[in-house]
Amino acid sequence: MGDLLQLVVSGTATGAIYALAALGFTLLWQAAGTINFAQGEFVMVPAFLMLFFMSSFGVPLWLAFVLACVVAMLLLGVAFKYGIVNPLIRHGVIPLVIATLGLSLGIKQLVKAGYSAQAFPFPSAFPSGQFSIGGAAVSYADVGTLFLAGIIVIGLQTFLNRTVTGRAMQAVAQNTDAARVLGIDANRMVLYVFLINAVLASVAALLVTPTYLAKFDMGDSIGLKAFFAAIIGGFNQTRGALLGGVLIGILENVVGFYVSPAYKEGVALMLFLVVILFRPEGLLGKVEERKV
Amino acid sequence: MKSSARITALFIGIAAFAVLPVFLKSYGVYLCTLFCVTLMATFGLNLTIGYAGQMSLGQAAFYGIGAYIAAISLKAGVPFFVVLPLAAVACFAVGLALGFPALRVQHHYLAFATLGFNVLVFLMMRNEEKITGGTFGISGIPRPTLLGYSMDGVLPFFWFTLFFTVLLAAFLWWLLRSPWGRAFAALRDNPIRAESLGVNITAYTLFAFAIGAACAGIAGVFFAALVQFVEPAPFHFSVSLLMLLAVIVGGSGKFFGPLLGTIVIVLLPEWLRFMQNWYLAAFGFAIVALMIWLPGGILSIPERLRLGRVARPAVAAPDTLKEATR
Fold first, then answer.
1. What is the pLDDT of residues B74-107, one digit of tens each?
2. Handedness of CA B78, B83, B85, B90 (dihedral sign)
3. Count of other CB atoms within 10 angstroms of residue A214
4. pLDDT of residue B316
5. Segment A250-265, tens digit of pLDDT
6. Taking CA atoms, which of A125, A199, B129, B261 is between 20 and 30 Å from A98?
7. What integer pLDDT is reported at residue A31 of this predicted model?
8. What is the CATH T-level fold of the domain A2-278, as seen in this structure?
9. What's phi and psi for B190, nearest 5 deg?
């Protein structure tokens, strides 16, 4: 029982990180109709930015994180939106999907060729060590991850539901034309979504890199889990991304422990296939009628 | 160009390519053969992407399944011409099983499903050591013999592979011109209209995807016989991504699009070896630029020039398009 509890706690912590990446992914889809296949690389880039700031300027981790957030917002938020999404969105989903696939390859290889193909250790934002609850050993890093991810999610939900800007963003996501008629600057709201996505990816990078190590292809796995988490929970629901992420995190741990650690990476796919077979709209999703 | 002139040009092209390796060293012949092998997989993928309008990111997984089936059964002494259909049928069946849940929902779900499938297949190749030999792979795969004539030499095997590549391409050409194939184009161009005319969208896209997978399986058999050694690395999902981008670069939905794209992913990297990883980085960003300025791929340039600026799709209100493609 202690084993299981331990697996669930650490799985929830890992799942919370997937959920952060998935959340950004879902927000981009809802507000901007963008399926971002480079989402994993959007996590990898801030990780390397933080490493760069720490090694080049000797700044502490928290300052490196803040700087990485700012650069990520410019690069993965503003530049991504105006350079790639805006020119392509009018051609429909597929060209944009392919462009983000190309972007994913480009960023990955750029880091590999220009920086290094090695895996770099990354400092944890939390103290090491663990304590025990009911026979389960829980690490401070897991608790810290859950705490930070929880704050980010609650903060984001409050922002989206309680502030005028947040509500305007939801309005744009639901019906862009109607939102425009009501005098909402839709373009600005979509830009906010891109900025939020960049920050979410940076936080995910801060939390995941100590265990994944900073490597050019670290985004492959995170990106894939983020897609699956978003679909499992329901593509059109923000809460869905959270549920999907945590579910994948826990199941991966349980399968890795009781079945085979070698197939941990396959868990998300299996869960995804089962969910789309029996509940194609996702666990929390609403059915979208196709418009002709 | 008239169609007869085109066919003549095509035959001259194939003949020139068939003669070329005679003047090359054995590594050059190997590259030409690898080019043919990859071409089989990308031609198949073009059917899925270009004609059925589906994104598949798992072509390397089917390629790998074909290669491992070939490696295991060829070593067990099963004749090559039994292995070939076996691998094709196996990949076709796996394609149906994977495509069925994904295609019921939305088009981009197939991309996620195939991507995850590729990751899973890669893990199985690496971990199921009893069957696949794990990271050490399977070596000593025999080359086929044709009418008692051995294909052990580099040149005979090249011609053998080229012959089957042309055969496969001819089959796909015929398939696309059959009424069955015409339905593909109809459903890619306007799925809703095609459906209202009685085309069963799900069945057609599923079959297109499975046939594309079977082509990759066939390519895998030739790959195993070419390198005579299989291990998981050539079937990583990044290879699937390269194959997909190869089809896009050449122009998806253009029959000869994959030809150009496969040169870009197989032959150019060898020539530009001094650039190493920068080549792939540049390739990735080139794809982004291509999507922005030339969404139809390189082979759409003549069309663009002929139609002038009109070739660009009329700028519709972004939101209506967004809705329509959801």
1. 888 888 889 999 999 999 999 999 888 878 766 6
2. positive
3. 24
4. 40
5. 999 899 888 888 788 8
6. A199
7. 83
8. ABC transporter involved in vitamin B12 uptake, BtuC (1.10.3470)
9. -155, 85
The ipTM value here is 0.84
- What DSSP state is assigned to residue B24? S
Coil/strand/helix, residue B139: strand
| Average pLDDT for B273-301 | 80
Residue in A90, A108, A272 closest to B116 by CB? A272
Nearest CB to B318; choose among A90, A103, A280: A90
Query: Is residue B286, in this structure, part of any structural domain at all?
Result: no
Tokens of B47: 């059917």
Q: Using a CB-CB distance cutoff of 8 angstroms, which residues of chain A are in contact with residue B248?
A: 98
Q: How many domains does chain B have?
A: 1
Q: How confident is the model at residue B14 (pLDDT cuts 50, 70, 90)?
A: confident
Report chain B residues whose CB lies below 8 A from the CB of A265.
119-120, 123
CB contact under 8 A, B281 and A114: yes
* Alpha-helix runs per DSSP H in chain B: 3-19, 26-46, 59-75, 80-103, 107-127, 129-132, 154-177, 179-189, 191-196, 201-227, 237-250, 257-262, 268-271, 277-293, 301-307, 318-325
Average pLDDT over residues A88-99: 83
In B130-189, the residues whose Cβ lies within 8 Å of chain A are none
B292: in domain: no
* A220/B244 touch (CB, cutoff 8 Å), yes or no: no
In one-letter notation, the amino acid at residue A251 is L
Helix (H), strand (E) counts: chain A: 13, 2
Segments forming the whole domain that contains residue B99: 15-249
A-contacting residues in B 5-64 (Cβ below 8 Å): 53, 55
Residue A86, Cβ neighbours under 10 Å: how many? 15
Q: Give residue B272's pLDDT.
A: 75
Residue type (1 letter), B253: G
Q: Is A228 on the interface with B (CB under 8 A)?
A: yes
Q: Across the interface, which of A37, A87, A276 has its CB nearest the CB of B105?
A: A276
pLDDT in tens, A110-140: 998 888 888 888 888 888 888 877 777 788 8
Per-residue confidence band for A19, with pLDDT thresholds at 50, 70 and 90: very high
- Residue in A81, A94, A96, A217 to test binding to B, most B beta-carbons within 10 Å: A94
**pLDDT for B195:** 76
Q: Tell me which chain B residue has its CA closest to the CA of residue A113.
A: B277
Test the B interface: residue of A44, A177, A251, A269 with most B CBs within 10 Å: A269
